[in-house]
Amino acid sequence: MQNPKIRKLVSIFILGLLPFFIQKCAKNNSSPDVNKLILGLTANQIAQGIPGEAVNEAPLLNDLDIQTSLVNGSQLITVKFSFQNSSLQNYSIKAYLGRPGTIVLKSDGITVEKYVQEASEVSAFPKQIRFSPPETGASYKIIVVAKNSFGVSVKQGSSKPPVVAGACGNALNAGTVADPLVIGNCNEYCMKVSLDGNDMQMKVEYNAGATSYFYMDLFAWKSDGNIATYNYTELFPDDPSIPIPPGQKVAEISINTSTFTEACVSLDSFSIFQENPDTPVYKYLNTRVIVP
């Protein structure tokens, strides 16, 4: 494929010689509209742009194509994007993934706040952005921001979690959590699961360093792999520059197991401990329980 820069130089060279050839022909044919012809051709070429070159204009995103899949037991979210102005070449693009009720696009139309993950275009896969969130069965909201020196374009969309049939093959039986099941080290960060009659409770405690983000969820799959119920708690500091201070924190959610049968309940917690501004520590707790 011909180099665009070379193609541009060739086009400019041809345009430069064009008046000479037209004038030469005009002398031989005594055409009275030579100047109009030259101006018309030149103006038309400028209006259309040099073939194969990007036009100087703001990006215009099409609707996002959001796909989910399971890769090695983890959820992979692939965001495919495209532009209405297909010749656009010079742009920067960012995508933000967050909880549907929490992530927000500010009134300036470009700044995104309270997101869980941020990602850019995948170099090996043009026009694609990929996320690998900690939860297998959660749904997310995605905001994509494309910009260049001429303007900004924003598109939003939601992901649907992949079907996870048979996800509880090695899970615990619900009867084993009648006494609290403890996962992790409660001096730092742990999850406690208990079953009181039909009420399954999940409690997360942490007594570690300052935290910039805290999340826990409890969701259940039916035997066909579709989600039966979903509940989550999410905490952000009021001011992003001031992390949640150290100390014991307790967040608790629960579900009534009598509302569904033969389900797999997944319990997840994800936190970012901000030991110092340059070295965030990501910690994740997870277990799965079968409800007979």
Structural account:
- The strands form five sheets. A five-stranded mixed beta sheet has the order 10-18-17-14-15, with no helix packed on it. The protein has a four-stranded antiparallel beta sheet with strand order 6-3-8-9, with no helix packed on it.
- The termini are far apart.
- The protein has 292 residues and is mainly beta.
- It has helices at residues 4-29, 34-48; strands at 65-71, 74-80, 92-98, 104-105, 112-113, 117-120, 128-131, 141-148, 151-158, 172-173, 181-185, 189-196, 199-206, 211-221, 227-235, 249-256, 263-274, 280-291.
| Biggest sheet statistics | 5 strands, mixed
Low-confidence stretches: 1-10, 34-54
CATH class of the largest domain: Mainly Beta
The ordered H/E elements are: HHEEEEEEEEEEEEEEEEEE
Domain unit count: 3
- Number of separate strands: 18
Approximately how much beta-strand content do the residues carry? 35-45%
Short overview:
With 292 residues, the chain is mainly beta. It has helices at residues 4-29, 34-48; strands at 65-71, 74-80, 92-98, 104-105, 112-113, 117-120, 128-131, 141-148, 151-158, 172-173, 181-185, 189-196, 199-206, 211-221, 227-235, 249-256, 263-274, 280-291. It folds into three domains: 4-48; 65-158, Immunoglobulin-like (Sandwich), CATH 2.60.40; 172-291, Immunoglobulin-like.
